[in-house]
Amino acid sequence: MTIKELENAFNIVRQYLEENLAEKLNEIASNDLAGLISNRVELKGEDSEGNKFTEYSKGYKKSREKKGKQTDFKDFSFTRDMWLNFDVVRKEKDAVYLGGKSKSSQDKIDWSTMYEEISIIAANKEELALVEGLLLKWCLETVKKYTKTG
Question: Which among 1, 2, 141, 142 is most buried, taking Cβ atoms within 10 Å?
Answer without folding.
Answer: 142
